[in-house]
Design a protein that fits this description.
With 255 residues, the protein is α/β, with parallel strands linked by helices. Helices cover 45% and strands 14% of the residues. The protein has a 7-stranded parallel sheet, with helices on both faces. The two termini are 33 Å apart. Bound molecules: NADP nicotinamide-adenine-dinucleotide phosphate.
């Protein structure tokens, strides 16, 4: 690869904030951004110590900033703490998310509320804080984590499906307002990935097999499958992309 092409994807000197980094997809994406040269602020409810250690081992800076993103006051406080530590934030990845499974007719109100708070309200509030900051600084990248359930309804997860459809809509709404101001807002829609989020459906052997058979790639995704896509959307290589939902799904939606 020549130097000009390398420079398109290089994140050296960039500072990112990634949410949901205690494990799963968030950990892999945070490490991927660091492998491309970025320093990373890590936000999860319980802390992201192993992720921070992995990033420091790469020679990059990591700040572990635990916060409960279901709470409005903690969203703003953790954003301010990250800006204080790093001076500026160039890349925001809104990845933290939860799922609650039960039939729609009996879906507990608390589950609905909790899912919407983490999966949607926190995405909007952090994007708002980041958007203002990035517009002031002349640009930035916001990457939201959507889902196959930004397009489909799923089974037993009405709150989750509603939240992820909303994340796709919000991505487009913010992109329309901020594209001309140098802020790219896009989303990644992962397919079926091997993380805690999908542990219950992978434990159901019949369901797991029927999902695997429907994936054209013939396998579930791994967290590392998101490293390339997140670096692409965080880098200059995607400067003319706005409001796009990038599906990383082994072909699931093509079927
Ligand atoms: P995961 O392994 O369960 O990780 C979820 C992350 O979100 C954890 O780091 C968790 O932190 C954090 N989090 C949850 N509630 C939080 C809160 N109130 N405040 C701060 N952080 C919170 O799940 P995952 O599969 O990696 O999911 C990551 C994202 O990808 C989610 O938005 C999910 O909807 C989306 N997604 C996943 C798949 C899949 O197949 N796995 C497919 C499509 C989309 P703690 O551990 O500290 O609670």
């Amino acid at each position: 690869m020549n130097q000009a092409m390398q420079a398109l994807f290089d994140l050296t000197g960039k500072r990112a904030l990634v949410t949901g980094t205690s494990g799963g997809l968030g950990r892999a994406m945070a490490i991927g951004l660091a492998e491309a040269g970025a320093d990373v602020a890590l936000v999860s409810r319980t802390g992201s110590r192993e992720t921070a250690d992995a990033i420091r081992a790469l020679g990059r800076r990591a700040e572990d900033l635990p916060a409960d993103l279901s709470r409005d006051d903690e969203r703003e406080a953790v954003w301010n703490r990250a800006v204080e530590r790093f001076g500026r934030i160039d890349i925001l990845v809104n990845n933290a998310g939860i799922i609650r499974r039960s039939p729609a007719a009996e879906h507990p109100r608390e589950d609905w509320d909790e899912v919407l708070k983490v999966n949607l309200d926190a995405v909007f509030r952090l994007s708002q804080l980041a958007g203002n900051h990035m517009i002031h600084n002349g640009g930035g990248k916001i990457i939201n984590i959507a889902s196959m359930l930004s397009f489909q309804g799923g089974i037993l997860v009405p709150g989750y499906a509603a939240s992820k459809h909303a994340v796709a809509g919000l991505t487009k709404a913010l992109a329309n307002e901020w594209a001309a101001k140098g802020v790219n807002v896009n989303a990644i829609a992962p397919g079926y990935m091997e993380t805690n989020n999908t542990a219950p459906i992978r434990a159901d052997r019949a369901r797991c097999r029927s999902i695997t058979e429907r994936i054209p790639a013939g396998r579930w995704g791994t967290p590392d499958d998101l490293k390339g896509p997140v670096v692409f959307l965080a880098s200059r290589a995607s400067d003319y992309m706005h409001g796009h939902i990038l599906c990383v799904d082994g072909g699931w939606l093509a079927r």
